[in-house]
Amino acid sequence: MKRLIAPAAGLVIAVLAIAPSVNAGEVPRLEGQWILLVSQDFGAEISDLHRIRPGGGGLSDLTQGAGRDTIGAISPDGTAIAFSTTVDGITGIWLMDVDGGNRRALTEGYGADPAWTPDGLAVVYSSFGGIRVVGRNGADDRVIVELEGANRNPVVSPDGTTVTFDNQVESTRDVFSVPLAGGEATPLTTEGGFEARWSPDGSRIVFVTFRPHEGDGNIWVMNPDGSAQANLVTSPNNDFRPSWSPDATRVLYESVLAEGGIAILIRDLATGTDTELLADPEGRWRDPVWNVVTLDPIEVTPTTTTEATSATEGTSTTESPSTGTDSSTTEVPATTVGEAAPPSGNSSDSPLLLVLVVGMLVILAFGGGILLGRNLDSSGREPPPPPPV
To answer: Of 102, 157, 311, 384, which alpha carbon lies 20 to 30 A from 328's?
Structure first.
């Protein structure tokens, strides 16, 4: 009887051990607030994407030397990261899961500076000659606007109607706006401006400008129509890449320090004080972007083209980050990365399927119990543990 019970119990335990992985195919998901930024290895010509909590916790290398990865943005549903990377000498827009795995090409040809639409269904990006938008599944890639010169850093307004970007012709670089649907571009700055970002409520735009006659700082703010331009962050350094906190009380930015190196800082606009998030004397940290998960997970079916190109570079792995917290904001802990996301279908299907599978395995185990029992008794070894989740 022992020989009959032992294999059956072993099979039941094994099935129960892997039960949490029934939905392991689900895409991992981040929650709350995260900052994406780039670290550069100048000697090896490698740059990696990292994520970190605004409060400083959860620092994690997402791409781990997989290539030259730059400028990333987390999707509003927290399941994907759009980023720019160089593969075989071609810089394009790629997607990966938020744990750094499942890298796949989103666009063909040159692409840089990706940013999500608020509904999470598309990505705007810069390309040769203009600003483009592509569906999250790689379909419907189209031009939004084409201006002479270099067009960079597109960002979509919170209401999803307008794209801001900067256009450079020779030494002149200014911020423009254009409808997401396409149309005529309108200049918002005429004395210099770039790297514009909308405030979460859409009432203001922060941007970078160099106007030495205007004061001691180059992070400015303006209304969506370009009016009321004013210095926002006073600093003796050269500062870049500003982005807002979700409540618009703080601004994240990259500061090229006068004494050397680069620091990633968060400015409290009420007090005028900075909190240092990261710093490096060799200028390792660059291009920070404040990201907030705002939507429930979106199911997207990749197109055939996207699936075919996804195997070009392979998959990068990463360690699960420790969960950091931002003491000045309320966040949902990022407990879903590295775990299965909640299933989008009928949750009652999995327990029923599990019961049926267990029942069938028990019957099979009793049917072949003597042989299995002998194998266990003769070897004296425990069965191997289930594969890691």
So the answer is: 157
> Which neighbouring-strand residues pair with 40?
47
Token pair 């970007």 in the structure block, residue? 165
At 154 the pLDDT is 98
Distance CA 151, CA 145 (A): 9
Using the 8-state DSSP alphabet, how is residue 214 labeled? Answer: G
So what's the pLDDT on residue 70?
A: 92
Torsion sign across C-alpha atoms 94, 96, 102, 103: positive
* Packing angle of the helix pair 369-379, 349-367 (nearest 10 deg): 80
Query: How far apart, in Å, are the Cα atoms of 349 and each of 330, 343, 344?
Result: 34, 10, 11
pLDDT tens-place string over residues 282-306: 899 999 999 999 999 998 776 544 3
- Contacts for 245 with CB less than 8 Å, ≥ 6 apart: 33, 54, 251, 252, 266, 290, 329
pLDDT at position 330 = 33
Distances (CA, A) of 69 to 113, 127, 386: 11, 16, 34
CB 266 within 8 A of CB 274: yes
What pLDDT, on the 0 to 100 scale, is given for residue 85?
94
Q: Which ranges of the chain have pLDDT less than 70?
A: 1-25, 42-44, 213-215, 302-389
Could you give all domains of the chain from N- to C-terminal order, each with its CATH number?
2-23+344-379 (no CATH), 33-309 (2.120.10.30)
Nearby residues of 147 by Cβ (< 8 Å), 6 or more positions away: 130, 167, 176, 185
The Cα 204–Cα 202 span in angstroms is 6
Say which amino acid occupies 22. Answer: V
